[in-house]
Amino acid sequence: ERSASITEWATAVTDMVNNEAFLDPWCVERSIVSIRVSKSGGNGGEWRSMSELRELYRWMSADVSGAVSDATAEEKEALSKPAYIGQPVDVSETHAIVRIALGAESLLSYLNDKDATLAEDRATVSKLAAIGKHFDTLKQSGL
User: Fold this and answer.
1) Exposed (0-12), middle (13-18) or buried (19+): which is 87, by Cβ within 10 Å?
2) pTM for the predicted model, two decimal places
3) Which residue of 45, 104, 116, 133 is 20 to 30 Å from 110, comparing CA positions?
């Protein structure tokens, strides 16, 4: 059951990432979804670097909604909530990645309440996507 649940979770999170223009599920290994962040929101474009993802990582844990005046209401909601991801990893000359993982504690939560756990993951993916879309604005804000 545990292995099937991990696969089910990874598939659900990968689908969430695939639905976002600025995100790409670069690699999925068991309970870890590694994500590239696009500079332009399109396939085949340029990807964010290690130094850029270090900034994204920092912004993920803070309320940065006030720095993006042109964000939609949904994006501002996502940008306002702290979300926690794995630290960036430099995997290539062309890009780095961040990770969403299902740890032991998260797996127990998932087994007890799939919907609540996936809602947290959806909030994390939404914030990643909003930061990806508004990266330049956040960078210029000096946050």
Assistant:
1) exposed
2) 0.94
3) 133
Alpha-carbon torsion (101, 89, 82, 17), positive or negative: negative
* Residue at token pair 């993006």: 68
Per-residue pLDDT of the chain (143 residues; tens, 9 = 90+): 789 999 999 999 999 999 999 999 999 999 999 999 999 886 667 999 999 999 999 999 999 999 999 999 999 999 999 999 999 999 998 899 999 999 999 999 999 999 999 999 999 999 999 999 999 999 999 88
If 0-12 CB within 10 Å is exposed, 13-18 middle and 19+ buried, where does residue 57 land? middle
CA 8 from centroid of its chain's CA atoms: 18
